Structure to design on (235 residues):
């Protein structure tokens, strides 16, 4: 089948403004958008730039807007796109460095700000491990699935309006440790998120949940963090 691929292009070294390049390609219905981009780069225009790594929906590096929706290019099949033209553009809210590549540093700065790591200096039981029941582990299982693709954060209107907002991904990763029964820094993370650019910038639009390629219930997790701040409870 023939596919029309329309790709956002911008090279700050030579372009005064962004533009789109269109390519006519032969593709299989089961080809992924990433396959199309790879073909263009390998056989048509080697200057095309985009991030990719594992190509299996695990690394999260190839997040981009596909026909206006944040997706992973390695997970979207040609046959699933109900449009004559496949338009590929960079995710919003982060500065474009070149073509589909955006500056991820502000995203990771927000991520680091919520202490996304395990904190517990207490002695380990039996000098072997920190015990946890299956129920305690299940409490935060959903938010362990985040792959830091930024699809949720860059689909959020609140983030588009003000990049100081910590964003859904950072809150999801804070949630993962806040509700871990073994961790001892929940109160500090809640204090960090109880800020004008913390959880209350979320207006429950659900864009983040829709955009998540791992199907994390992002909006629910944000709501649980809000409730923990208000009530001081982690149940």
């Amino acid at each position: 089948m023939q596919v029309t691929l329309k790709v956002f292009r911008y090279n700050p070294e030579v372009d005064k403004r962004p533009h789109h390049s269109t390519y006519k390609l032969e593709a299989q219905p089961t080809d992924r958008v990433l396959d199309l981009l790879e073909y263009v780069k390998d056989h048509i225009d080697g200057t095309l730039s985009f991030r990719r790594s594992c190509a299996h929906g695990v690394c999260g590096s190839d997040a981009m807007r596909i026909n206006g929706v944040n997706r992973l290019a390695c997970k979207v099949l040609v046959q699933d796109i109900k449009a004559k033209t496949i338009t590929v553009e960079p995710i919003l809210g982060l500065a474009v460095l070149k073509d589909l590549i955006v500056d991820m540093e502000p995203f990771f700065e927000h991520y680091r700000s919520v202490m996304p790591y395990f904190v517990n200096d207490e002695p380990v039981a039996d000098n072997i491990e920190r015990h946890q029941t299956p129920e305690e582990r299940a409490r935060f299982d959903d938010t362990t699935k985040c792959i830091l693709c930024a699809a949720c954060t860059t689909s959020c209107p609140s983030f588009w309006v003000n990049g100081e907002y910590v964003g859904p991904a950072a809150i999801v990763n804070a949630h993962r440790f806040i509700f871990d029964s073994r961790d001892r820094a929940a109160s500090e993370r809640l204090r960090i998120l109880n800020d004008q650019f913390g959880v209350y910038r979320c207006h429950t639009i659900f864009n983040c949940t829709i955009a998540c390629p791992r199907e994390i219930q992002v909006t629910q997790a944000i709501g649980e963090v809000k409730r923990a701040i208000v009530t001081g409870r982690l149940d």
Notes: Residues 218-231 form the longest helix (14 residues).
